[in-house]
Amino acid sequence: MNELTIRQPDDWHIHLRDDEMLERVLPFTAAQFARGIIMPNLKPPVINAQMAAAYRDRILAALPEGMQFEPLMTAYLTDTTDPAELEAGFASGVLTAVKLYPANATTNSAAGVSSIEHIRGCLEVMQRIGMPLLIHGEVVDPSIDIFDREAVFLERTLGPMLNDYPELKVVLEHITTSNSVDFVMDRPRNLAATITAHHLQINRNHMLVGGIRPHYYCLPIVKRASHQQALRVAATSGDARFFLGTDTAPHPISGKHSACGCAGVFTAPCALESYVQVFDEHQALDKFEAFASLNGPAFYGLPVNTGTITLKRQAHKMIGDIGEGPEAIRPYRMGESIPWSIA
Ligand code: DOR
Ligand code: ZN
């Protein structure tokens, strides 16, 4: 198969940032995806429906003329989020989901949740109204090794939470381990997971052997090859619980090339091309539409897109830095030859 036409996909996990950065990165996402779940970890974070509606307006204002894209907004959970506000935001259609960052787990998460005890009222309401909870699944316990933080989160936090709220709709975001794959497979269907293109393509050797590659540094951090392999098998299996979420997360080069560099990989400019390459390598092109375009809408209870997109087995050279100097953004796979292109 040298050409593949699928329903237009959605990206169920995106960092679009704000202001000038938003203007620079949005066209890459809008060129590939019809809709996207927009992460709320701005400075300050988007913590309620009113802020989400204003952010949605800024995204739509930044969309170049002639491009279509529907931002699906999320609210950032804090220890003091008002459950009634979430319910109203969901009922009005402004909020599609709620994001749980354990406090200090990642970029701009300092105002996140310090203990599940603080959000029980929110979880109860969300379970009742069917509002999805999107989770950054890592513990922040300093005694836990960074490579184990996702697996420990499943045991310590997610398992007990799902036992307490068995009907809660949960997306475990950007999973990076075989532990998470197994955990999702073992639970009822109200638990799903997104998988990034970069976690399918790279493991910690790519990041660390022969020199440290800061543009592969993200959170949760890439793990050993056996975990990468488990993610590839899950994504290409066609199982409806796994779907596309790039976690595209742009940072200026000044933030990446630093003694204390930022976490995030800017994958938007070659997201679909990278995913389809993985499905091709697994002889699973027939499963790609489910992963990219069908499983996500089914989980969120949204219609699938009506348009289509065609991918071709035709190599193209990835673009270089976007912008110049320390404020430039370096895309994932910069300058590489990529075997698939969008027609
Ligand atoms: O690598 C990451 N970058 N992981 C996250 O959880 C946040 C994101 C960002 O906002 O830069
Ligand atoms: Zn993210």
Protein model, in words:
By secondary structure, the protein is of the alpha/beta class. It has a single domain (3-342), classed as Metal-dependent hydrolases (TIM Barrel, Alpha-Beta Barrel), CATH 3.20.20.140. It is 35% helix and 15% strand. It has an 8-stranded parallel beta sheet. Helix 5 (149-164) links the parallel strand 6 (133-135) and strand 7 (170-172). Helix 3 (83-91) runs parallel beside helix 4. The two termini are 14 Å apart. The mean pLDDT is 98. Residues 15, 41, 106-107, 136, 218-219, 249, 263-264 line the site of (4S)-2,6-dioxohexahydropyrimidine-4-carboxylic acid.
Spell out the blueprint of helices and strands.
Layout: E1 3-7, E2 11-14, H1 19-30, E3 35-38, H2 49-62, E4 70-76, H3 83-91, E5 95-100, H4 120-129, E6 133-135, H5 149-164, E7 170-172, H6 178-186, E8 191-195, H7 197-201, H8 204-208, H9 225-235, E9 242-244, H10 253-256, H11 271-281, H12 288-300, E10 308-312, E11 316-317, E12 337-338, E13 341-342
Parallel strand pairs: 2-3, 3-4, 4-5, 5-6, 6-7, 7-8, 8-9
Antiparallel strand pairs: 1-10, 10-13, 11-12
Helix pairs in contact: 3-4
Question: Low-confidence parts, pLDDT < 50 over ≥5 residues?
Answer: none
Here the CATH topology equals TIM Barrel
Content-based structural category: alpha/beta
Largest sheet: 8 strands, parallel
Strand order of the largest sheet: 2-3-4-5-6-7-8-9
Mean pLDDT: 98
Strand content: 5-15%
- Helix fraction bin: 25-40%
The hetero molecules present are:
(4S)-2,6-dioxohexahydropyrimidine-4-carboxylic acid, zinc ion
Q: Please identify which CATH superfamily we are dealing with.
A: Metal-dependent hydrolases
How many domains make up the coordinates? 1
**Rg from alpha-carbon coordinates:** 19 Å
Instruction: Write down the secondary-structure element order.
Output: EEHEHEHEHEHEHEHHHEHHHEEEE
Quantity of strands, as a count: 13
User: How far do the termini sit from each other?
Assistant: 14 Å
Q: How many helices? A: 12
| CATH C-level | Alpha Beta
Apparent shape:
globular
Supply the CATH architecture: Alpha-Beta Barrel
